[in-house]
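User: Could you check the structure of this?
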Amino acid sequence: MPYKVNISIDDVSPHPLSSVKVIDNCYKIIDDFPLAKFTLFVPIAYWRTMEYTSTKGPLSIEEHPDFCQYLKMLPSENFEIGYHGYYHGIPGKSNNDEFQHLSMAEAINKFNLMFDIVEKAGLSEVFKPIFRPPAWRMSAAAIRAARDVGMKILALSPDDYATAVYCGEDKSFMNVNYYNVNPPWKPLRFFEKTGVVYHACEWDKNYLNLQKVDELRGFLKGAEFDFCFMEGVT
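Assistant: Sure, the predicted structure tokens are below.
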């Protein structure tokens, strides 16, 4: 039986250093593998407040029509879009961890903020009910909230630093995807269900740059596998 392979890209946003430019490199993969499938995770109002990557305010997607139009025009046979938080971080405290400490009510409010902006942006039919929490961390209460608001798939981490925050609640969610490849920290290799993670942010060592494109193409060439969207590796 061939392996199943999904490629996901985190932090696709209107940020100038974490943008749709990464999708140009996705198309280089598609040139060689026309059936390639990518899951793009979008923070709905990306706001980095720490270090040199900070912006003056949140980059709410409905205020960036060119970005929204770009997402609408992506070929549906190659791309699907999932949710990746509201701000992604905790303004003034962290660029990550937005969902790590939330109560259920706070998490439901965050999800509703995301849904409202996606609707205003005209992207409700584009986004799928798939959620990857920023930095893979979300509280047990936030996991319950995700279920209540209609998320169908959680894309999580199998690593201790993240699972400790889940407090076992992830085990009761119907459909959970745990990634298993994250170059350079978790190198390219096949699993029965292979979830390969890259980032859109150019400052990240996991950014899908041209070198990583070449590595991925070389890894996939000649192998027996099927591409699939997130549901297929869950």
